[in-house]
Design goal:
Length: about 575
RNA sequence: GGUCCCGUGGUGAAGCUGGAGUUCACGCCGGCCUGUCAAGCCGGAGGUCGCGGGUUCGAGUCCCGUCGGGACCGCCA
């Protein structure tokens, strides 16, 4: 029960069954409607809802005053029922109103109208913004997710362990937030980008199943789905296969989804990274819509068209006129825009074709294609009259990437729009591309991922073909998180470092504090981490994680309410052994 | 670091081809009002059109710069 010394009920919980009770409610004045000296309606609001209070005497309460109302719950008179309120059948009569605190007029309406208010102003007065139903709901969605995850993880034998916030700076990965040391001037702690290091050590330590809903910090530019600070369900398990990890993390995600939506999402699909790239042109495919990439390389094997002849990979997407009437009917201007977009991503060009009656092909390049090529193309693409075809011929990765981007540009719905499509993307490549400076492969994920056992014969000869036991979880085109089976044997770790061009000495210098414990009996282990903010945003129906974070930063990394970050005085710096450089000269 | 969009009383908007800080809705203050519910009616206050410069007889409007916000790219092993 939420009753306290000051109140008997929450505002939103009274209904027709409460009639006849004398109640006390506490909350904020949402609205008042005065009808002369002897009648006024005061709507009192708390996070649970709104209750109408009928005041017979004169009382001066204004918007957002904090009040306590005591009175008798009664059914509303015939014809005055408000069906848009859950409490609309009843009202409180014979009210005694106590003003607990007055309030200045708020800078914006504390209701749904503030959805349209400049976000900067909402953030400056976040304590008022959060008073609104939308934010109350969102924060509670988030709490439900955390709660459901904890319960599920604990049911499955995971132990919550808290890991340090102050840790050494590590050389790899995202930019870190640094914290100067007072006792060791000139030395710094780093704030964790993730508890990766700690959780693997906990496996060495025999914890067996660890989890934590952990705050992670990365000093990288902010986005709709990225903040400096974010929360992850971080987990690690010993003596497991990849399937064990996916099943356990999957259970937590499903539990969270059920807690919020009340229904289980469809089974989480699986797709390999290679298939995801081939079919959707991206490693975080949005499975809510089709427009899949269609393989056309062999179809144009003998073509006279120079842009296609000899291309190692030709693919196309079909913009279906029924589903995307606007895009399918793009004029020359828009098509040129798509071509520019394709070139920007790395394609040499973009071929567009409009399908007319009887499969006629209207395109600047139509004259270079034979009739049989055209008809084979139309049939391979499943195109019908009015459809727009977009084709790219290039290296496999460029072709996939460009069409995947165009597919998203044209077809992707807002991230929160149903149905929810969760998908595991597995078998990420161990290495991605060659570093132009070192001439060595670059790690696809991080250098501690276990290579796929089936690919070890290629490890030294064709490293770029080696898959990793690494996987992502994707929801509606947003990467929720990623994980892997980790390397637990020093010899395997050495082989990976060798491929990356990292010598034993260098590995010891850079990762020694991490690798040393592995000499003392590291169990085979693997884990995962996924972003709570992103999951909460999507399940709350928001397109932006700021809407599910109580006090977020703006895109420029500032807090309009506290004005953080702020300068500190020189004495404060001196204590830390710091001195500021002069501001960079503006040239 | 880059591309694009936005900036007008407390809030949200309109302001056309340059012609007086003009308009609309909400909010605010005062008055009236005994069944309203984003109450209604009457009256009132409130703005250096983000900031700076330029063009012009004249700039919210056109140009340049700058600051702030947002979306995206880079970046996020």
């Amino acid at each position: 029960m939420r009753s306290t010394a000051m109140r008997t009920h929450m505002c939103g919980e009274l209904d027709i069954a409460s009639v006849g009770k004398t109640v006390s409610l506490c909350g904020w004045v949402a609205r008042r409607r005065e009808h002369g000296e002897h009648l006024a309606f005061v709507d009192i609001r708390d996070h649970s809802g709104i209750m109408q209070c009928v005041v017979d005497n004169d009382v001066d309460v204004r918007s957002e005053f904090v009040i306590r109302v005591t009175g008798l719950v009664r059914a509303r008179p015939e014809g005055t029922i408000n069906s848009s309120l859950t409490t609309g059948m009843v009202e409180i009569g014979d009210c005694v109103v106590e003003i607990l605190n007055s309030a200045e007029p708020p800078p914006f309406p504390v209701d749904a109208r503030a959805d349209d208010v400049d976000e900067m102003i909402r953030l400056k007065y976040r304590y008022l913004d959060i008073r609104r139903e939308r934010m109350q709901k969102n924060l509670r969605v988030r709490a439900q997710i955390n709660s459901a995850i904890r319960k599920e993880m604990e049911t499955n034998g995971f132990v919550e362990v808290e890991t340090p916030f102050l840790m050494p700076s590590t050389p790899e990965g995202a930019r870190e937030f640094l914290v100067p040391s007072r006792k060791e001037p000139g030395s710094f702690f780093a704030l964790p980008q993730s508890p990766q290091l700690w959780k693997q050590l906990l496996m060495v330590a025999g914890v067996d199943r660890y989890y934590q809903i952990a705050r992670c910090l990365r000093d990288e530019d902010l986005r709709a789905d990225r903040q400096y600070e974010f929360m992850q369900l971080d987990a690690e398990m010993s003596f497991v296969s990849q399937d064990d990890v996916l099943e356990n993390i999957g259970r937590a995600v499903v539990a969270a989804a059920i807690a919020v939506t009340g229904e289980a999402p469809p089974e989480i699909e699986r797709i390999t990274w290679h298939d995801a790239m081939n079919r959707f042109g991206i490693d975080k495919p949005d499975l809510r819509f089709a427009m899949e990439l269609i393989e056309l390389t062999s179809l144009f094997a003998g073509t006279e068209f120079k842009a296609f002849a000899g291309a190692s990979c030709i693919k196309g997407i079909c913009v279906d006129a029924k589903t995307y009437p606007e895009a399918a009917a793009f004029g020359r201007n828009k098509l040129d825009g798509l071509t520019d977009r394709a070139k920007k991503i790395g394609a040499k060009g973009l071929v567009w074709m409009k399908i007319g009656a009887d499969g006629a092909v209207d395109s600047p390049v139509a004259k270079f294609l034979s009739d049989s090529e055209k008809s084979a193309l139309v049939s391979a693409m499943g195109a019908t009259e009015g459809d727009l075809l977009l084709l790219v011929a290039d290296e496999w990765d460029t072709t996939c990437e460009v069409l995947g981007q165009l597919r998203n540009d044209i077809g992707r719905p807002p991230v929160h729009q149903g149905p929810y499509k969760y998908v595991w993307v597995t078998e990420f490549p161990l290495f991605i591309g060659i570093d132009p400076v070192s001439g060595r492969p670059r790690p696809g994920h991080h250098p501690f991922c276990q290579p796929h056992p089936d690919d070890m014969s290629l490890f030294e000869t064709e490293p770029l073909k080696v898959r990793a036991l690494a996987y992502d979880l994707v929801l509606n085109g947003w990467e929720l998180g990623s994980g892997s089976i980790r390397i637990h044997e020093p010899e395997m770790q050495r082989r990976v470092f060798n491929q990356l061009g990292i010598s034993d000495e260098e590995a010891d210098k850079r990762f020694g504090f991490f690798l040393q414990p592995f000499k003392y009996g590291a169990p085979p282990h693997g884990g995962f981490a996924f972003g709570i903010d992103r999951l909460a945003a999507i399940l709350a129906g928001e397109e932006n994680i700021r809407e599910v974070i109580a006090f977020p930063k703006t895109q420029s990394g500032l807090d309009p309410m506290t004005n953080a970050p702020t300068p500190v005085d020189p004495a404060h710096l001196a204590e830390l052994g710091l001195r500021l450089l002069p501001p960079p000269a503006s040239s």
